[in-house]
Amino acid sequence: MPEDIILSTSGLTKEFAGFTAVSGVDLKVKRGSIHALIGPNGAGKTTCFNLLTKFLPPTRGTIVYNGRDITGEKPAEIARLGLVRSFQISAVFPQLSVLTNVRIALQRKRGDSFDFWRSERSLKNLDAEARRLVEAVGLSPFLELTAGELSYGRKRALEIATTLALEPEMLLLDEPMAGMGREDIERIEALIRKVSAERTILMVEHNLSVVASLCDRITVLARGQVLAEGDYATVSKDPRVVEAYIGSGGGHGHH
Ligand SMILES: Nc1ncnc2c1ncn2[C@@H]1O[C@H](COP(=O)(O)OP(=O)(O)OP(=O)(O)O)[C@@H](O)[C@H]1O
Ligand SMILES: [Mg+2]
Questions:
Q1: Residues with beta carbon < 5 A to ion ligand 2?
Q2: Structural contact between residues 249 and 255, judged by C-beta atoms closer than 8 angstroms
């Protein structure tokens, strides 16, 4: 049986004034998987994400999502198709409560249907759905706190809730654990595992122990190119991967 691929790129390339940040990347992400994109600083991971969500136009190459060529689509259309990047699209308002933040995200999702807002019943449904999302990310005890009062890890959980409000089929996470302590890392790791149950996740992550325990498949980028691919045991033993990380001085801790 052929693999069920939700997202693939072919020859994806991005040049910045003669410098090639992403170079001929062929990526295949299996539906339902947690796929990691790793590599030393400057490898081109974030640029790849920017290409996938169409924040940047590629110089060359194609992107296919759910069998559809999305290379020429606009960012809003990509999100509408269910491919959503967290921590960028999902702004969190620090002065508003946890519940209000999630409600606003839900309202944005349904923003196109004005009539929806006229009925009291719809507003009640919205409230119930917001509470359900808050519960899903483990923030029920903090419903009435403002986002600004949350710890760093819980703020990330709230950002994930506001992203989930958009009902993504595939979620892109760029360094979800960046700047976190061990306790928050464990919490967000569990949350990512939970939300992955019904969707596909592609994540950039420097914390390799998180990658090892969370991700089914790993693509290693170095200098814009795919260096290795496979499960953690395979890529972590690959001499080219070891070399790339050593050559870059460890590959993380730059934030
Ligand atoms: N808008 C831009 N203009 C010019 N060069 C850029 C631009 N964006 C990224 N680059 C360069 O492209 C290369 C890849 O950057 P990118 O941010 O994709 O790396 P990364 O793998 O995400 O690194 P990190 O792990 O540090 O986040 C870097 O050399 C960077 O300086
Ligand atoms: Mg980056």
A1: 45-46
A2: no
